[in-house]
Amino acid sequence: MEEILSQNEIDALLSALSSGEMDAEELKQEENEKRVRVYDFKRALRFSKEQIRSIGRIHENYARLLTTFLSGQLRTYVNISVASVDQVPYEEFIRSVPKMTFLNIFNAAPLPGRIIMEINPNVGYSMLDRLLGGTGTSMNKIENLTEIETMILSQLFERTSDSLRDAWSGLINMEPELEKFEVNPQFVQMVSPNDTVIVVTLDTAIGEASGMINLCIPHIVLEPVIQKLSAHYQLQTNTKKKDHAAYDNLSANIKRTEVELKAILGETTIRIEQFLNMQKSDVIALDQPIDGTLLLQLNNEPKFYVQPGRSKRKMAVQILEEIKGGNENDG
C-alpha cells in the first residue's frame, strides 16, 4: 500500500529539495531500489494467503475429528490443534523430519498424487503403549518395531483416513487409503525436491506425551481443487448447496415427533367446601356455552378454535380457526 504524506510532510520535503539538502535523483534511485526484491525460485509460492487460510480451516476441522477418533480408540486425554500451515519445497519438509519416524502414505483418490502423515515418535509410541494396555508412556525404539507393533499402528493410522475424508467432504469427495507405512524418510520420494508442498503441523498431546503430527500435501494433489479454496467460491457454494440427505433426515425426524392435543370442553371454579361435599349425580356447570367453539391446545399452548362432533363412531373436533400468537411462524 502506498504511503500517503500529510501536508506538513509535503511542505518539508519541498523545502529540503529547494535548499539542496535532498537530491531528487537520489530519491528516484532509492525508490527504484525498493522495488527490487530477491526471489528464490526454489521456494516458489504457488498458493495465495487466502488459499492457505482455507486449507487451515479444513484442517482445523480435521484436528477436531482426529481428536474425537483417537480419544475413543486410546481411551485417554487427546488434544490436537493446528499449529501452522506453510508452503515449502518438498526437500525442506523431508529434511525437517527425524531420521526415524512414523510415515503414513495415503493416496487421495480421486485427486492425483499422495499425502504423507508424519507422526513424531513420542506421539506414535504413546499411541502404541495405550493400544497395548499401557499408560501411554513414550519410548524410542523405532528401529526395532516388531511385525505385531507395525501391524497395530498401521491399522490405527488406516482408520484415521475417515477423519481426513470427512474434513475435506465440503470441498471434494475424497476417499483416502493408506498405501504404505514407513519409518525412514529416505525411502519416501513422492515429488521432486523443489516441488511446492503444503505442510500442516498439528500440535498433539496424548496423555502425558506431546509432539507433532505433520501432513505433507503436494501441489499436484491440490491442483484440481485449487480454485475451490478461494473464499469467494466457498461462499457461493455454501449459499447454493443444500445437504439434501441431512434435510430429509431432519424432516423425517420432525414428522415422527409426537405432540399432545387437548380439546378443552370448558372450565369453571368452585370453592373447596363444594369440592369436599360433592356426591354422585352432582352437576358441575362449565363456563362454555353448549353451542360455542372449543379451544384446542398443542402441548398446552392454544392453537385452534374447534367444534365438537363425531368421526367414524369416535368423538372428534373440526378446526374452525387458527389462533394467531405473538410469533405467527409458530405452529
Automatic annotation (TrEMBL):
Membrane protein topology class: Peripheral membrane protein
Keywords for this protein: Bacterial flagellum, Cell membrane, Cell projection, Chemotaxis, Cilium, Flagellar rotation, Flagellum, Membrane
Keyword Glycoprotein: no
Domain Flagellar motor switch protein FliN-like C-terminal: 254-323
Location(s), subcellular: Bacterial flagellum basal body; Cell membrane
Residues spanning the membrane: none
Gene3D superfamilies: CheC-like (3.40.1550.10), SpoA-like (2.30.330.10)
CDD domains: FliM (cd17908)
UniProt xrefs under InterPro entries: CheC-like_sf (IPR028976), Flag_FliM (IPR001689), FliN-like_C (IPR001543), SpoA-like_sf (IPR036429)
Record Pfam families: FliM, FliMN_C
Record-stated family: Belongs to the FliM family.
PANTHER family, per database record: FLAGELLAR MOTOR SWITCH PROTEIN FLIM (PTHR30034), YOP PROTEINS TRANSLOCATION PROTEIN Q (PTHR30034:SF6)
Protein name: Flagellar motor switch protein FliM
Organism per entry: Tigheibacillus jepli
Lineage, top ranks: Bacteria, Bacillati, Bacillota, Bacilli, Bacillales
